[in-house]
Structures are given as structure tokens and as C-alpha cells.
Amino acid sequence: MNILSPSILSADFSKLGEQIIQTKEGGAQYLHIDVMDGVFVPAISFGMCVIQSIRGITDMVFDVHLMITEPIRYIEEFAKDGADIITVHLEACRDVRATLLKIKECGCKTGLTIKPGTDIEALRPFLDITDMILIMSVEPGFGGQKYIEASTERIAKVREMIDSSPYEIDLEVDGGINLSNVTTVLEAGANVIVAGSAVYKDDIRNNTKQFMDILQNGGRK
Ligand code: DX5
Ligand code: ZN
User: Residue 44 gets which letter from DSSP?
Assistant: First the structure.
């Protein structure tokens, strides 16, 4: 089953709780939580306090995308605050394997992500301990950017890599996804879709529903 993971980075933070509930009512299963440290990426977003607060209002799966340097330092804390899946950037870790093992040790699912310019082959050594691969389809750093077209081929190649391995790994794509290009992303082999600005505008519940219609009736089942 395909999964929608709306990115709260594009939410109105003065109404965060109610907007999250609207995505849940629209059928989204995950909540994508973008943590930025101002070092790995130029922007600073939010951290533990926000995750703790929203953990109290929903049982959605917390899909935490850490855009921070040496994330191993904070894994325990994010796990304690309610993360379900913790995704780290391969480029941000001195020891990728140790970081992923730490995530597992803390009882969370492991996610491994790469920026648009990183060779997808860099993922291969970690397939055995990765529950989800995240392909960035924009440069990480902020919401509302345009989908990089070359991502489609990268998604297809990573899907091939997963399917020819003995492992069951989810394939998530993040950045610039909207109702017009989501089918292409699904057809390339993604099964977890992040959408920020395309969900958190105007009628959030209805935007989510429209995504869910496509996710449930098209693409990879
Ligand atoms: C970018 C973030 C994305 C972003 C997606 O660094 O990782 O999750 O919020 O937003 P849209 O869907 O607007 O590109
Ligand atoms: Zn993200």
C-alpha cells in the first residue's frame, strides 16, 4: 500500500495541531517532520519540543527527517520524544552504519537518505540495515521547491537495487511533489510520498484526500 507523509514544514505553525488532524482525516498515514540544524543545511526549523507536543495529539507514524550534522548525537532523544522512523543523511554521518544501528537500538525504523547529487551506489553497503531509503528530489533545506526531473531515473534505479536485493525496503521521495507529478514518482517505484506545500495550503483535508485517491488507485500497489 502506498503511503502519504505530509511535511509539516509547510504548515501554519500557529495552527499546527488542527492542520495535522486535517491530514489524518484526509487519510495520510505518516507525518513527515523536517529537522534542520543550520549547519548541514542553511535553515533552522524546529526540534524536540515540537515533536513532543504533537506526539500528544495523534497516533500517526512520525517520519522524522534529520537534516543535521552527526545525527548519532541526538538519536536517543528523538526516539524518546516519539519518532517512529528516523531518517539520516548519508552525507552527514561519519559512521553511517553505527548511526543506523543506534536508530535500531532505540526501537525505531531506520531511514537513509541522499541529496540529489550523491551517487545512489553509496546506499548499497547499508541495504541490510535500512528499512526505508529516501531519495531527495530537491536540495534539502526548504519547502516549495521544484521537483528535479532527473530524480525519476534515480528512483527507478534505487527501486531496482531494492528489488534485486534480499531486503524489504520502503522507498520514499521528498521534494516538489504535487498532484500533477505524483503518478510519475509512484510509477518510478516510490511507495512513500512526502508532500509539503501541495498539502498545507487552502483545503488541507481535501488536498490530502486527492493525494490519497492517486496513491490508492495508481502506481505501485
Ligand atoms: C526539504 C524537506 C521537504 C520539504 C518538502 O528540505 O526535506 O520535506 O518540506 O516540501 P515540498 O513538498 O513543498 O517540496
Ligand atoms: Zn523532508
Answer: B
Pocket of ligand 1 (CB under 6 A): 7, 9-10, 32, 34, 65, 138, 140-145, 174-177, 194-198
For ligand 1, atom 4: residue with the closest CA: 143
Residue in 128, 135, 80 with CA at minimum distance from that of residue 106: 80
Would you say 182 and 155 are in contact if contact means Cβ atoms under 8 Å apart?
no
Phi-psi region of 177 (alpha: psi -120 to 50; beta: other; left: phi over 0): beta
Phi-psi map region of 184: left, alpha, beta (phi>0 left; psi -120 to 50 alpha)? alpha
Residue 89 cell numbers, joined: 543523511
**How many residues comprise the chain?**
221
0.90 surpassed by pTM: yes
Read off the pLDDT of residues 25-57 as tens digits, 9 standing for 90 and up: 999 999 999 999 999 999 999 999 999 999 999
For 105, other C-beta atoms within 10 Å of its C-beta total 11
- What is the amino acid identity at position 158? V
Q: Which residue has the cell 514544514?
A: 9
- Residue 53 CA to residue 82 CA, distance in Å, equals 10
Distance 136 CA to ligand 2 centre (A): 8
209, 216 Cβ separation under 8 angstroms: no
Pocket test for ligand 1, best of 10, 86, 147 (most atoms within 8 A of CB): 10
The rounded Å distance from CA 174 to ligand 1 centre is: 6
